[in-house]
Amino acid sequence: MSAFVTLSPRWLEKAKDVGARRFAYARQQGYQNQGGLDPDPMYDRIGAVGEAAVAKHFGEKWHQSVGKIDEPDVGRDIEVRTRSVYARNRNLYARPKDHDDRPYVLVHTVQGAEGVWLIGWRFAAEVKETGQWDEHSKRWYASPPYRPLYELEQRIREQNTPPHAMVHTCIVCGAYAMHGRGVALLKGREGTWYCGTHKPD
Predict the structure, then answer these.
(1) Beta 132-134 vs 115-123: how paired, if at all?
(2) Beta strand 192-194 with 3-6: parallel, antiparallel or unpaired?
(3) 78, 90, 158, 167 - which has most CB atoms within 10 Å?
(4) How far apart are CA 181 and CA 194, in angstroms?
């Protein structure tokens, strides 16, 4: 199941700034676009928007890294692949040096839309094993279906939940919930809990 995520103007501006800084750093270092495309700050900006949306959906930290290639995009080990719906190939991809054991989330953007679509995810090893190699871009592209987002939410919960911790479920769908509203445990109020998909804005 995919999820539509909207970002506030403040977060969109932050993504624009992160993308601009990444583009400037890449030009300074003389890096070439790994996808075989001409250098364009738009690609860095779109990538940053996708990362911000994934961080919001899963309630994880967006690292906003510039020049730190081995640092994950979001949380402990989440990587993000953002593709325009107008791209020649919109599928999830992996590069030869991508970390096999990290989850890679596919995000689709539409020009002029108020948000982005989180499509699904796979481990890089799965993309390399089942995907089709593209010599031009030096990537494997894996077609759908992808792993559902709730499986990644479950994985994050297992990573972040200490033993004997209280676990909450979404009031809408029953999935693991990371976003609470009206919580005041010292006053005996557990509040209402939502998963990333059904979290109120």
Answers:
(1) unpaired
(2) unpaired
(3) 78
(4) 8
